[in-house]
């Protein structure tokens, strides 16, 4: 009788403790039907794959000055979407040069070509959740581009080892229906001083450096992005003006855009788009990137 009373008294307490633990570390939740959206984003705090109803992106034709990069990523992505093996891709280079925009534009191009492929975004700080996400996506017949924007690792950050294993390691390898794309300002994903420190402190410096930069080698496709010249910058401005149908004097706008980029300190695709956003605001025009 006493034991029964103790159990009845302890049970509610145990249930409250279980509820509290669930709130602190909820179970992983994935949509039952992964065919219902073009894109998803990983909500780490909720441990949930959230559908994205509308992906804001521009068509490939709007991205100027990166023709070779367009071709490389589109060919790799198209092969993947058609059921063929494709490389993980690292888009690296100067800030604002169109890395993320290209990735989204290529995905949009696949959709317009009738190729069923979804894009899943994960934040840099949530890389440790990749194995769980990939395990869930592996169960689907659909193909997925896993995407991490602005990927980089700082000193004393050991999570890069987990990413290495996810990309190519393990006996099972990467699932056939998943490819991993990342953008970064660094070619080797790690700061120069981090590699230099390994060179100075390791018993075998060359082995230490190889271990650090081998993460980038997991990406079979490296696509570099670089600063643009004034001619390309002005071509971007003109292309945006025509795409959004802005009624302006082109020569005056080009002159103003040069002043704008001088104020920003550099020329880039991002700077050009920011200028167009500012110009559209002055004209009272609502930009609709997804109207193509």
Describe the structure.
- The chain starts with a helix and ends in a 9-residue tail after the last helix.
- The protein folds into 2 domains: 39-225, P-loop containing nucleotide triphosphate hydrolases (Rossmann fold, 3-Layer(aba) Sandwich); 230-291, no CATH class.
- The chain has 10 helices and 7 strands.
- By secondary structure, it is an alpha/beta fold.
- It is globular.
- The chain has helices spanning 2-24, 67-81, 99-112, 130-138, 160-167, 192-201, 205-217, 230-244, 250-264, 269-283; strands spanning 39-43, 48-52, 89-93, 117-121, 143-148, 178-184, 221-225.
Largest sheet, in brief, is: 7 strands, mixed
Distance between the termini: 74 Å
CATH secondary-structure class of the largest domain: Alpha Beta
Per the principal axes of the C-alpha atoms, what is the gross shape? globular
CATH superfamily of the largest domain: P-loop containing nucleotide triphosphate hydrolases
Helices and strands, in order, run as HEEHEHEHEHEHHEHHH
- Any idea how many domains? 2
Calculate Rg over CA atoms.
Answer: 24 Å
Tell me the fraction of residues in β-strands, as a range.
5-15%
- List the total number of helices: 10
Model regions low in confidence, pLDDT < 50 over at least 5 residues: none
CATH topology value of the largest domain: Rossmann fold
Bin the helical content. 40-55%
Instruction: Briefly note the structural class of the backbone.
Output: alpha/beta
Q: Give the averaged pLDDT, no decimals.
A: 83
What is the architecture of the largest domain at the second tier of CATH?
A: 3-Layer(aba) Sandwich
Strand segment tally = 7
Largest beta sheet: what is the strand line-up? 2-1-4-5-6-3-7
């Amino acid at each position: 009788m006493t034991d029964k009373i103790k159990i009845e008294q302890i049970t509610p307490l145990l249930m409250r403790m279980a509820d509290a633990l669930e709130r602190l570390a909820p179970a992983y939740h994935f949509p039952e039907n992964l065919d219902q959206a073009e894109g998803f984003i990983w909500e780490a705090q909720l441990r949930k794959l959230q559908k994205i109803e509308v992906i804001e992106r521009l068509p490939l034709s709007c991205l100027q000055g990166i023709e070779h990069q367009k071709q490389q990523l589109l060919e790799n992505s198209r092969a993947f979407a058609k059921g063929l093996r494709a490389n993980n891709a690292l888009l690296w280079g100067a800030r604002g040069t169109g890395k993320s925009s290209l990735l989204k534009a290529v995905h949009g191009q696949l959709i317009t070509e009738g190729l069923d492929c979804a894009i899943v975004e994960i934040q840099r700080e949530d890389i440790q959740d990749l194995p769980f996400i990939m395990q869930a996506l592996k169960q689907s017949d659909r193909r997925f581009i896993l995407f991490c924007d602005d990927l980089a690792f700082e000193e004393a950050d050991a999570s890069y080892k987990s990413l290495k294993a996810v990309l190519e390691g393990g006996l099972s390898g990467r699932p056939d229906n998943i490819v991993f794309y990342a953008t970064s300002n660094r070619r080797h994903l790690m700061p120069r001083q981090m590699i230099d420190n390994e060179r100075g402190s390791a018993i075998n410096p060359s082995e230490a450096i190889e271990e650090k930069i081998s993460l980038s080698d997991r990406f079979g496709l490296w696509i570099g992005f670089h600063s643009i010249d004034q001619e390309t910058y002005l071509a971007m401005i003109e292309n945006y003006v025509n795409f959004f149908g802005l009624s302006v004097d082109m020569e005056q706008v080009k002159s103003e855009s040069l002043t704008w980029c001088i104020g920003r300190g550099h020329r880039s695709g991002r700077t050009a788009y920011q200028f167009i956003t500012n110009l559209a605001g002055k004209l009272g025009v609502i930009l609709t990137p997804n109207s193509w």
